[in-house]
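Figure 3 (text version): structure tokens given as input.
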């Protein structure tokens, strides 16, 4: 791989502080973000369990946990911005390429996240458990997208194969390349 390409993509001013500072801040803010995500998914799971239960205590717990999940989503979103900014500072060329390779999915992430949050609010308004399931499925889909983007960022050796498979350029950004590669490997049994 040509390292000159990566050097040309880097910010000529360099990092505004020592990179270790950004690594530490990235880990700390990501830990806070993941804590909020775990609270959100756990409380959402308990809310679903409460709606399925005949026990009055579980139903009450489910109602309270649904409200907790709604707040935890907002906290997770707010706390998720800082780790992304630190990734941008440290891994700028890599993160940029992975976002361009799957550009439609980067934008779809935002739409899916908003739809999941709206599903949470819909459940809060009408108390129909279907909306909790919709929210849970959409939130897990958001997690899949972010994990795929992170894997694409780390798989720089595969970028050219993803961008121009068999020498044919496909610049549409429609595939989650890391997920597509995993699925094709599973189908082939390799």
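Below: residues designed for each position.
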């Amino acid at each position: 791989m040509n390292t000159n390409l990566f050097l040309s993509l880097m910010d000529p001013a360099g990092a505004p502080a020592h990179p270790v500072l950004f690594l530490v801040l990235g880990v700390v803010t990501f830990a806070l973000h993941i804590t909020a995500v775990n609270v959100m998914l756990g409380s959402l799971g308990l809310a679903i369990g409460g709606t399925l239960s005949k026990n009055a205590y579980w139903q009450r717990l489910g109602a309270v946990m649904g409200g907790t999940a709604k707040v935890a989503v907002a906290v997770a979103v707010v706390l998720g911005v800082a780790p992304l900014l630190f990734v941008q500072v440290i891994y700028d060329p890599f993160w940029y390429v992975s976002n361009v390779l799957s550009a439609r999915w980067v934008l779809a992430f935002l739409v899916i996240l908003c739809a999941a949050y709206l599903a949470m609010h819909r459940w809060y308004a009408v108390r129909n458990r279907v909306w909790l399931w919709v929210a849970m499925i959409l939130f897990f889909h958001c997690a899949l997208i972010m994990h795929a983007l992170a894997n694409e960022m780390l798989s720089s050796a595969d970028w050219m194969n993803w961008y121009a498979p068999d020498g044919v350029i496909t610049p549409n950004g429609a595939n989650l390349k890391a997920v597509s590669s995993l699925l094709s490997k599973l189908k082939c049994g390799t």
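The mean pLDDT is 87.
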